[in-house]
Amino acid sequence: MNIKDLADYHHPVSKLFAEVKEQVDYEPFALSKEQVEHFDEYGYVTNVKILEEDQVDVLRKALDEIQDPEHPARDLFYEFHGNHSTNPDTVLFHSLGHWRVSEAFHDALWNPAFTKPASQLLGNKAVRFWHDQLFCKPAGHGGVVAWHQDYSYWIRTVPMQHLTCWIGLDDASTENGCLNYVPSSHRWGLLKRLELGGEMDALFEQLDEALQAQIKPVPMELKKGHACFHHPLMVHGSYENKSQRSRRAMVLNVFADGTKSDTDDIMLRGTDIRVPKGKALDTKYFPLIYPAN
């Protein structure tokens, strides 16, 4: 069977999202000055509408298809964890690389409702795609995503000019395990990396008393189709799903154009992708998704 690798297409391949022909077409999706200032102060901005309801429906259908362990394009995934939880009594589906497999998830990279805010929060720079993720917590026994900083997993790239966008494919609430932030923790510096599916509060054991006193998590309760953006050093995590509703989310990770490799080793775990140390990440696996103004 001939499998198409969508990484070969550096443009939308469907009509799922708004078409952009010139810079003015991005303007309806711009963040306000107040939203950008909130991000700078607290390390995040929330409740940004990214998807319309029909787009959520298409992405959910695509998610159902790619969760199949027998999916014919399974080898194109970077990682595929039917259960990434270290607790056998809970479930955390986690995958990376599905942009290469699904037209809907591929085209979400070029959605102007995502790319315009991303550029603004990166200082109005051109934006390249880093990698995608799916996190799915089934009703009743969905596992945790332990407190962590995204850049602790990305130190093989420099300088630190990265950004994460967490997008709900279900309504996200405290009961079903929504994302939580520790406001202004992006000012704490880089902490030691720990296991994503491990003990929820293990990261905090690294902190001195002064920083521990600042741990006041804020839940990011969102309607489906809405998103949070956060700084690469933002401390964040999510608790288990105790509700009778699923909690599915897609995550898009990006960096400013000009980011370089800081290693000669494999760039993305589960792949053979390499970029020589000191070279810009501008291969087909890191497409330009928002051009310079």
Describe the structure.
There is one protein chain. This protein has 293 residues and is α+β, with helices and mostly antiparallel strands. It has a single domain, classed as q2cbj1_9rhob like domain (Jelly Rolls, Sandwich). 15% of the residues lie in helices and 22% in strands. It has five helices and 14 strands. The protein has helices spanning 33-42, 53-66, 103-107, 112-121, 209-212; strands at 44-49, 79-81, 93-96, 127-137, 145-148, 157-158, 162-168, 179-181, 218-219, 226-230, 236-238, 247-256, 260-261, 288-290. The strands form three sheets. Strands 1, 2, 3, 4, 7, 10, 12 and 14 form an eight-stranded antiparallel beta sheet that branches. The longest helix is centred in the N-terminal third of the chain and has 14 residues, at 53-66. It is globular. The relative contact order is 0.21. The model has no long low-confidence stretch (mean pLDDT 92).
- SSE-based structural type: alpha+beta
Poorly predicted sequence stretches spanning 5 or more consecutive residues: none
CATH class assignment = Mainly Beta
CATH topology (fold) name: Jelly Rolls
Overall body shape: globular
Spatial gap, N to C terminus: 42 Å
Report mean pLDDT, rounded to a whole number: 92
Computed CA radius of gyration, to the nearest angstrom: 18 Å
Question: Helix and strand string, N-terminal first?
Answer: HEHEEHHEEEEEHEEEEEE
Helical proportion, percent range: 10-25%
Number of helices: 5
CATH architecture: Sandwich
Counted beta strands: 14
GO molecular function: 2-oxoglutarate-dependent dioxygenase activity; iron ion binding
Pfam families: PhyH
Cofactor: Fe(2+)
InterPro entries: Phytyl_CoA_dOase-like
